[in-house]
Amino acid sequence: METSQERPQIVLVVEDEVLVRMVISDYLRNCGYRVIEATSADEAMMILRNAEIDVDVVFSDVEMPASMDGFQYRHGCAPIVLVST
Amino acid sequence: MSIDPSVANPSASQGQATILFVEDEIITRFSISEELRSQGYQVIEAASGDEALSVLRATERVDVVVTDLRMPGSLNGSDLVRLIRREFPGLKVVMLSGNSPDAEVRALLDEYISKPIFPPVLGHRIRKLTSSSN
User: If you write DSSP's letter for every residue of B54-86 in order, what string do you get?
Assistant: First the structure.
């Protein structure tokens, strides 16, 4: 994935079901990624708007509680992968 | 949902303590979890007492629970501590909060740590706690 000189890629995992989030995040960490766990799209936007955190990929559920769902991200920098049943 | 232990706990054989970190504020949850991972801990993140209980009932990999006091949802930190003592009496429980719990809950804790805390110090305090039980 990365050479030793590069920083680990950061994946923002957005999933409201804790057991699903835990398994996905564990797997990605074991693959060498640095993972930030968000429980909602609103939380994810807080991370994406934080200038000190450079997210490389957003891996998100679609249907989630709170004010936004996975179709409503407003962020132009990181690629977004939506996952849904 | 059933969790395949080999997927959920790939590092169990390494003998590292697993911490369930319960904190509703995402930046705090992420930064402290990252620091604990850098110290060799396996960390499961939960954003509420309800999430923490779901994790504890689904997997036996947790050694230490570190929880905030004030959290959204049906279980605050005090409720979670009482439930853990009933359902999972062998777990170490640490409360990390800016607000001190009442005396009844405090007596159920292995340790109360006041926020703010320098994250490396938290790892050190947990290491002392887990080593004292071996």
Answer: HHHHH-S---EEEE-SS-SSS--HHHHHHHHHH
If you search the block for the tokens 């693959």, which residue do you land on?
A31
pLDDT digits (tens, 9 = 90+) for B21-55: 999 999 999 999 999 999 999 999 999 999 999 99
**ipTM for the predicted complex:** 0.83
Hey, which residues does A83 pair with through a beta bridge?
Answer: A61
The CA distance from B103 to the nearest CA of chain A, in Å, is 31
Which residues 35-94 on chain B approach chain A with CB closer than 8 angstroms?
A: 37, 44-47, 51, 54-55, 58
- pLDDT, tens digit, 9 for 90 and up, residues B55-98: 999 999 999 999 999 998 899 999 999 999 999 999 999 999 99
pTM of the model: 0.86
Is B93:B3 a contact under the CB 8 Å cutoff? no
